[in-house]
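User: My advisor asked me to double-check a structure prediction for Fanconi Anaemia group E protein C-terminal domain-containing protein before group meeting. I don't want to rely on an old file, so could you generate it fresh from this sequence?
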Amino acid sequence: MECWVPLFQIFLNSPCPDTEASLWLQQSFNQPGPITISTSSFLSLLTTPTEITVTDSSSSHTKRVMWIQTLPNAVQARILSFLLYDCRRFCETDLYQLAETMLKEGKELDFWVKQAAHQLLDVLSKSNHEWLSCLNLDSEEEQVEDEFRSLPDWLKDDVDNTDLMLPWLPVSQKQFNLAMQFSSCGENDDPMTEFEEGKREIVDEVIEEVDEVIKEVDVFLNPQDEEMAERLKDRLSSLQSTAKAVELAGEIRQLCKGRGQSLAILGIIEPWRADDETTSVLVSNLVDGNEDEHGWTSHVLCSVILPKLLVLKEPASRVLLTTTVECCKVHHRAAEYALLLPLILRMDGINSPICDVITRIVRESLHQGHVSAFCQKLLSDENDLKKSIFLPCHQCLIDSKLAWTESLFNLMQNILNHNIHLTQDSVDRLVQHAWEYADRFSKSLKFGNFLLCFVTKCAPMLKSQKSLLTEATQHTNTLVTKSVLSKLSSL
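Assistant: Sure, here is a fresh prediction for Fanconi Anaemia group E protein C-terminal domain-containing protein from the sequence you gave:
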């Protein structure tokens, strides 16, 4: 009860209790403590059954009322006024029950309390209160649709077409349902063992999806399709207009459609050799937004855009960058497996132009939660999690492990500056990599700026790694070394 005292002091003393109470409830919402402060717990407190002793001229008896009815009438009226003011944050069914139960008091109810209860019901779209004289709370409760605790419509809808329950989650609805299908634990079962097995099943299924895409290149391509792909390749090299590019994109789609050989066909056509303007036309006409994330869309990205970015040595053109970002906004998982992973796993490590492209994709195309999960996967020691989609001819450009360069540390700084919240595991691994490469980049300002940003953004999670990170910083000699050491000393 003590945690609610400041709120009731507002109702007692504040000249403007509605706004002050709303602000207090918002600031205190779900704060750690013996009792969780929320709109539901507040209504639960108000409606707690309480026994009071009523004394009249002849005798005294006990009466069961709600806890709110034991408060002074002025406070009751102010609380009801607040519930009216902030009604959208409360469960409608609970508000109905509270107001109706108070109105059952009839003549015994204070005038201003009764007025406040009536106003609350009016706002909740109950214009006629004549039925209150024969009130049946049980039947009325069944009539009120409880939308407060139900899932929103956009989560109830079938998401098979979009594959992802939420676009930024790296787990599809199918994978989520699989993880929930655990058998009940027996006497000797270890719940944590079952959890780990279920998590492993999710990871294995994602890996299998990527493997199925990669294995397509081993499918035998019949001579007719191969000949047609060669003709399309010749036409691609001699395109002279946008209309011809649109026509060519349609023919490529038609050739690849339903054959399960699109990677092999695209490998023959070599669409990455087109100029950036033609690339933009091809991508916009090859991808229409309804394709499978791990299927056709991934194939288009890894065969049209990825090869251009893998060899990027100068800043990407505006048209190529815009095309890439707009496609990634719609196809998050395809962007992860067919662009981001192979780019970051580039054999020689990423350079500054590639870092700029990835930063732009992360900042404008992906949800922060998706980026956090992606970083955790990227920093993991499990190589199976880093399986990416690319054409066999580009395998020599992509490794299975991260090559830590100045630009990769700069990318991590850009991700942190985008207010991405990393897990403790990811933070610990970043500390380990910083310690490992501190000597190599001892005079690198990019590396120094990464350390400064890292310590600033992740300070609460670095306390256990303070000594290791301090040792790494002491091996550097840049303009920001003293600033990093100063921040570390204050942890």
